[in-house]
């Protein structure tokens, strides 16, 4: 255990050092928020994949593999295909806009009120994304190092808040590259084969698990469709993803390297589902299936190697936590602070953004201390985002009759209905996103058609 702890501490020290180095490069707001819009293909691929693959994709997909078998990969598949979609169809027009937030597109098409209304939804989404991976960090550290959950949250999450605050996107990019390499080696090339071998090999998995564990649709078509509605479309409108797109040096880098990152996400999901299946054979009676990942790490790996895999898990979780945190602080500073009378500093100092990153980091730690289930937390974030913002954003791009009143009503009613059905049917239910989107579409179309307004050409993103 001492050797494992040393490896993890070495990883943490490297993250803080990279965060400090990133601070030296983040001199302007554009440096801090979008890395100067200057990332090449290797950095772009690594930071995009690391952003998407966090707590739910790692801890959550292992849990889904434990419960459902190979079909648990669909969560990561929906995310990966979403990355491919945004890379092929939206990256080019997005890079031409030279903006910082999703909500700025809504302001261009509607008015500032639409931007501010959507910013509130985006802020909640980004905070929940950050909190989801912070919760997973706490879960891993609690099980493997025997520390109280709240202590694990404050230590692990505090490290993320620290390096994110000081260096912004440059710190995130530098740490993401290291995290991407560590998680690839530690989880895909070490934990997956060793856990399967410890379970007796592939033949032993086939013999011990039911046939449904090897069916790609065993999780259920309703769940697969829901994952696509929530995660595939959520990727298209998530601030954390758009902010990564804005960092690309060219349209070709965003298209090619982004698509490669999406393919990697799908393969990563398969690897995590297989780890979950091995855990089911090794630990068939787990009291808490959320601990499947940490438990299989604990029993399948020797000292030292275990530390590498724990560092790999923390790498996956910290990358997404930091992405959500920066997305939340960017939305708060760029969209909401000016509304409250704050000063817009154009391309000046990153000081205000650092202050907001610290504040959003403290909020993230608070949320992580009171929420426990990573997939439920992620589902809540995407239900609110897609239910409230997908329809107004698509309307802004493609429908000339769209109005500000229709957009704001769709945001409000879509997100509120999604929230109401999450409270009524539970966070894991399929109904919140279905009813949220249905009400969002209906209110958007009806109120837009009834609104008396001067015709405004749809915002051009192509």
TrEMBL record:
Keywords: Membrane, Symport, Transmembrane, Transmembrane helix, Transport. InterPro entries: Na/Glc_symporter_sf, Na/solute_symporter, Sodium:Solute_Symporter. It comes from the Bacteria. The keyword Membrane applies. It is found in: Membrane. One of its GO terms (cellular component) is plasma membrane. GO terms for molecular function: symporter activity. The chain crosses the membrane at residues 6-23, 43-66, 72-95, 116-137, 149-170, 177-196, 216-237, 258-279, 308-334, 355-375, 381-399, 406-427, 433-451. It holds the Pfam family SSF. Signal peptide: none annotated. It is a multi-pass membrane protein. The keyword Nucleus does not apply. Belongs to the sodium:solute symporter (SSF) (TC 2.A.21) family. This is Sodium/proline symporter. It comes from Zestomonas carbonaria.
């Amino acid at each position: 255990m001492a050797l494992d702890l040393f490896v993890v501490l070495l990883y943490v020290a490297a993250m803080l050092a990279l965060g400090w180095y990133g601070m030296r490069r983040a001199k302007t707001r554009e440096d801090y928020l979008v890395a100067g819009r200057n990332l090449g293909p290797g950095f772009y691929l690594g930071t995009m994949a690391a952003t998407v693959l966090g707590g739910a994709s790692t801890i959550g997909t292992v849990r889904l593999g434990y419960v459902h078998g190979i079909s648990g990969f669909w969560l990561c598949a929906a995310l990966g295909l979403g990355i491919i979609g945004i890379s092929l169809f939206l990256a080019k027009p997005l890079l031409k806009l030279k903006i910082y937030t999703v909500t700025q597109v809504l302001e261009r098409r509607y008015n500032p009120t639409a931007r501010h209304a959507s910013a509130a939804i985006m802020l909640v989404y980004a905070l929940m994304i950050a909190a989801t991976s912070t919760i997973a960090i706490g879960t891993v550290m609690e099980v493997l190092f025997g520390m109280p959950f709240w202590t694990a949250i404050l230590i692990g999450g505090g490290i993320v808040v620290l390096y994110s605050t000081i260096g912004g996107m440059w710190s995130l990019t530098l740490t993401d590259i290291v995290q991407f390499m560590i998680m690839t080696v530690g989880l895909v090339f070490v934990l997956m084969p060793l856990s399967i071998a410890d379970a007796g090999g592939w033949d032993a998995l086939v013999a011990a698990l039911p046939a449904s564990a090897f069916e790609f649709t065993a999780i259920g078509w309703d769940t697969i469709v829901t994952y696509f509605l929530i995660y595939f479309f959520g990727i298209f409108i998530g601030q954390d993803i758009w902010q990564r797109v804005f960092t690309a040096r060219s349209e070709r880098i965003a298209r090619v390297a982004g698509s490669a990152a999406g393919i990697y996400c799908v393969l990563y999901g398969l690897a995590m589902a297989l780890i979950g299946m091995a855990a089911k054979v090794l630990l068939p009676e787990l009291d808490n299936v959320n601990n499947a990942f940490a438990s299989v790490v604990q029993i399948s790996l020797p000292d030292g190697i275990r530390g590498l895999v724990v560092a790999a898990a923390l790498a996956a979780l910290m990358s997404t936590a930091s992405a959500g945190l920066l997305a939340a602080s960017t939305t708060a500073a760029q969209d909401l602070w000016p509304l409250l009378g704050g000063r817009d500093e154009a391309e000046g100092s990153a000081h205000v953004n650092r202050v907001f990153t610290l504040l959003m980091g403290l909020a993230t730690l608070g949320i992580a201390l009171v929420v426990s289930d990573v997939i439920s937390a992620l589902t809540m974030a995407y239900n609110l985002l897609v239910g409230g913002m997908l329809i107004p954003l698509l309307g802004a791009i493609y429908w000339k009759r769209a109005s500000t009143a229709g957009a704001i009503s769709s945001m409000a009613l879509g997100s509120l209905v999604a929230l109401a059905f999450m409270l009524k049917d539970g966070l894991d239910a399929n109904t919140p996103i279905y009813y949220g989107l249905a009400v969002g579409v209906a209110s958007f179309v009806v109120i837009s058609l009834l609104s008396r307004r001067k015709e405004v050409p749809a915002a051009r993103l192509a």
